Amino acid sequence: MRITIIDKNSYHTLLTELHEVAGNRIAEDGVTVPLRDIFHYTDVHIIKDEIVGFDFKNNTVSSEDRQYKYDYLVLAFGSEPNYYGIPGMKENCFPLWSYKDAVAVREQIYDCFIRAAQEEDKDRRSALLTFVVGGGGFTGVEMIGELGMWVRKLCTQFHIDRNEVQLYLIEALSKILNILKDKNIDASMRYLTDKLKVNVLLESAITKLEPDRVELKDGRVINTRTLIWTAGIKASSLTASIDLEKNRTSRLVVDEYTKTTLQNVYAIGDVSAFTYEDKVLPPLVESAVQTGKNAGKNILADIRNKDKTRLEPKLHGVMVSIGSNFAVSEIMGKIFPIWLSIVMKYMVNIHYLFGIGGFELVFKYLSHELLHKRHRLNFLEYHYTFRTLAFWLVPLRLFLGYTWFMEGYNKINEGWLAKPMLAGLPVDAASSASVTETGEKVFSIISPHTPGWYAWIANNLVIPNALLFQVMIVLAEIALGLAFFSGTFTFLAALAALALNVNFLLSTGLYETSWWLIPAEIAMLAGAGRAFGLDAHLMPFLMKGWRYLVRRSS
Question: InterPro entries, per this entry (predicted)?
Answer without folding.
Answer: FAD/NAD-bd_sf, FAD/NAD-binding_dom, NDH-2
